[in-house]
Amino acid sequence: MQSQVSEPYTLTAETVLNPIAEIATAEESESQEQVTKQPFWFRTRFIGCMELYADADTVAAYLNTHQGWFRRCAHPMKAEPIGENGYAITIGRFGSFGYEVEPKVGLQLLPPEQGVYRIVTIPVPDYTPPGYHVDFKADQVLVEVPLEQATVLGSVMTRVEWKLDLTVSVWFPKFIQVLPSSLIQKTGDSLLAQIVKQVSRCLTRKVQEDFHGTLGAEVLEAFKKQRSLLAHQPVCQQCE
Q1: What pLDDT is stored for residue 73 in this prediction?
Q2: Residue of 199, 210, 196, 191 whose CA lies nearest to 237
């Protein structure tokens, strides 16, 4: 599935907003209250995988009981339950030069259907997103792979292979319109992809450690050594 500690996943969109620094005057506060009539649409597609050293049935049993692991693995993001399978997730704060947004999105982890685990967007009760809309669609499948040699980690590994299609629409304050649309579009798409990538790295690391921890301390330590040897997973500072 790298920021200042004071704000989870804080990123500054300076590459978008720096060009307006000189024109953001005393009239800026008034301008920010006027938003564009049409939103900008930012999109990204992400494909990833997560390796768990156990058979597919064991991994499936863990994924199906997300009420026990999702919230602690999502930290430092805030995740509040919505019903039995949903969560309201506050991702972090983004912005610069007085224009900030702290996205919150409702996600539902659907029960598997024909071996496919899906995550979709759902409304957050009693919450209206201020100037943005998120459409999140993710599919996950489990692929069991035999290992060449049995170790304390077992004789099989399961790859959780997933793909994400994410679309975010944003109604920007009027003063942003002084920038070229192509610049806003290119930088917004890039920033969205960066956010997804680093959140994915952090969440993947936490889920891997949480899952292997459920199999015992010996398995968890063996997994950490294996990961270190492979140098396969980039480390997110927030996951330390």
Answers
A1: 94
A2: 199
> How many whole angstroms separate alpha carbon 135 and alpha carbon 165?
8
Looking at the whole model, is its pTM more than 0.70?
Answer: yes
H-state helical runs in the chain: 14-17, 28-32, 56-64, 70-74, 181-214, 217-230
CB 116 within 8 A of CB 140: yes
222 compared with 6, residue with greater pLDDT: 222
* Residue positions counted in the chain: 240
Q: Which residues of 15-38 are buried (b: 16+ CB within 10 A; e: fewer)?
A: ebbeebeeebeeebeebbeebeee
Provide the 8-state DSSP code for 113. Answer: B
Distance CA 67, CA 164 (A): 22
pLDDT digit string, tens, across residues 120-161: 999 999 999 888 899 999 999 999 999 998 899 999 999 999
